[in-house]
User: Fold these one by one.
Assistant:
Number 1:
Amino acid sequence: MKIAIPERGEYVIRHLVFDYNGTLAVNGEMEEAVLSRMADLAGSFHVSVITADTYGTVAEALRGTGIDVKIISKARGSLDKRDYVESLGAGGVIAFGNGSNDALMLETAAIGVVVMNPEGVSLEAMLKGDLLVNSIHEAMDLVVKPDRLVADLRR
């Protein structure tokens, strides 16, 4: 996806990187509709889920989807997430998260989307992200309808 955001830059987005708990899943469980939308996005992007896997449910939830799952350490979580985004080429990444351990990932990615879900959002994530949305569905809509990103992020 090519996207030009006035006074910000032009991006070629190839990667979508999602936090799992609190972003895609609530209490370790992901809705079937979210999984279906992720599978659709994986047809156009390299989709990754990077998580400390607090509830131990991510591998089973994403088994057989072709979506990359990266389990990170709880001790270095924020650094591992940032390093992963950098390894993909941060300028081609949209990252999605909600927690403090997502803040560096959100800041490093070309576009960082903070997702509000019932588990809450950390203030650190809100300060490091570029955009705040009310749900994971709204977050995924930004990728499907990128003019929304342009409208929200242009200066």
Number 2:
Amino acid sequence: MYELKTKETDHSVIEFIETVENVKKREDAYKLLDIFTETAGYEAKMWGPSIIGFGSYHYKYESGHEGDAPLVGFSPRKAKISLYFATGDTKREELLKDFGKHTAGKACVYINKVADIDVEVLKALIHQSVTFLQEKYPDR
């Protein structure tokens, strides 16, 4: 049976951010921590060794695969900062048009630094993702 690697842990979010070597990226991680906490309305928790997540939901796919995941989150990785929003939400693509300098994958949006993006659009993305997932998975 497949075991999910990214689980909520009791590790300290602040201790993790303090391990980020790049000073500018560490400063951005603190900015994002404030923005996500305020906007999502949930306390930051570590998910796995490197994702800072906010809130959680339980998903179950038609295949039978199920698990828990944060509603939204981010990770200050070496190359870029990864932002985690809901997948499958068509409003996400609309909001990203005015987001600023970024690249996007299926589950992640990547930025170099907070100064490259519109923070108000970031707040809208966080709010939209939380709302979308709470409506899609109301059991939490």
Number 3:
Amino acid sequence: MKNFKKLKIWQKAILISDQVFDMYEELPWQKAGILRDQSTRASVSIVSNVAEGSSRRTEREKYRYMEMALGSAFELEAQTIVLHRRSWAPKAQAEQLLQDVDELQKMIIGFMARLNP
């Protein structure tokens, strides 16, 4: 697919990235500084790997990039769980992010299942 912006996975990933940046923008650096760096990097990694993977010619290459996107999604989930357990972000905001990340993970896994690497 040449226009990655039409992929539902990419659209969901960019919305999650916005959520992450918005959530951390409101948190004091002293509380969540390390998580801020890792979480924003992970969210951007998901968006980037989906976009880059969509440009690849073979299903094997696409699958590889989806694996990396999925790994970053699990990384973001773990970081959000830590943030949530520490009560550093509003509960509803962290829970919504966890729900959205879970949905994205399922979307990526479903997409990977349709590929034949």
Number 4:
Amino acid sequence: MFKVTPNPPETDAIPNSDPASPYCALDPTKLNDTAERALDHYLKPHVSPQRTPSTMFVVAPNTDTESLLAHACESMASASIMLSDFAGLLEKPYRNTLLGIQQVVMLGELAVNRALDNLEPLPRN
């Protein structure tokens, strides 16, 4: 008697394989390589290339510490005054927020001033 439906494919090449499985025809080497790449992506630390800072706004590298601290102190004092003045123009909830920021800037200014006090003055030529 003649059979109308074709025979299923033979599975002798791959032992214990399920003919309905989409993975039985995949190359085990490719699967291993893919698994290795996936594990490397999630488990190996990513080493980023050395970051090069922008040179648009650069502080001269030979500037002495005392000058840098003095400039930082003056900048923070100016920012503190600007924040305080601006806070006077705002309503209560925003004023309180701005005054909190002003206080943080003022505390930074005090810390920079203390660092300036602790520095040994450089001999002037």
